[in-house]
Fold:
Amino acid sequence: MLRFLTAGESHGQALVGILDGIPKGVPLCQKDFSDLMKKRWDGYRRSPRKNIENDSVEILSGVRFGKTLGSPIGLLIKNLDYQNHIDSMNKWELSPDYKPLTTPLPGHADYAGGKKFNTDDFRDIRERASARETAMRNALSVPARKLLFELGVRSAAFVRKIGSISSNISENYSISEVSAALEQEDASAFLTPDLSVVPSWKNLVDSAAEKGQTLGGMVEVCFGNLPPGIGSHTQSDLRIDSRLAAIVLSIPGVKAVEFGEGILQSQLEGASAHDSFYCEDGEISRKSNMAGGIEGGMTNGMPLVIRAFMKPLPSTCGLSTVDIKTMKTVAVKPERTDVMALPALAITLESVISIEIASALIENFSGNTLEKIKDLVS
Structure:
């Protein structure tokens, strides 16, 4: 199975990560990392920090001559913004000019983390709880993505909804069609194959920005050509939907996850809620994919469809808080933030699911090399 760890603070010197368990022989190149990290920064009304960071990924170990060695892969991403925060992030000395962060931000980890770690400087918590950590998880997903690609698995990630405005994307789309549509000019600003919704979304985001507000929404990822039986019904912690739900909800800002048409299924009668089988030319097929490719804790051979719902970001919304030093109610001090970060969420969703799916595939088809796993899968 795959294991990974990340370390680093949002405005610290760097993010570091280790991915253990990738088989030997998976091909990698620097462009695999740079292309993905650029996609993470794409999107309309992103934070000004995108103009500071380049998120160049340095490979420290586990790769030789463009292929994985089977040993742990170590990665490093330097935070260029660290130079602007040396006083607040100094490892050894407390600057006389430093002012502790004593106002917890609603919707963030500040208050609960401050209680847990008995600190009255919420920067101790906020720096690590920041979504900046997902930059490293995206980078760590690259070997997993390439493993899945070598095994014939394809995926697409996109934004379905911003605020109350939904895109018009067919439920029966193909991954190849969506991937091609996402390559269109202007598609990257909102990461949608439906360009007709872009003007409405742009107006919505601009209006929110003018009011100092932020927006949430819903994103979707689809994985095709997964073999049936990934995961297991035998124990609760082996169920693939349980594992995937946990990793999706680990993304900061995500408050709900849906598999296939799970919400709609709950509103239907049984005959309409499930995916009937039929046989054609000796092949078993399905009439629908309401289950989103998972039944009984296992992939069922249909496309895996997962949706994540993100809350609006809390940093600039005119919220109130309490200064724990004075115990007075004060307004939250505005900080730079994205008006909406849904394209980045879609890419991150695809990344964390790639790692978990690759891990489950390695478990099912045990092998230390890419070639051995290919033989077992086929």
In short: The first helix runs from residue 30 to 41. Residues 54 and 80 are 8 Å apart (CA to CA). The radius of gyration is 22 Å. The longest strand covers residues 154-162.
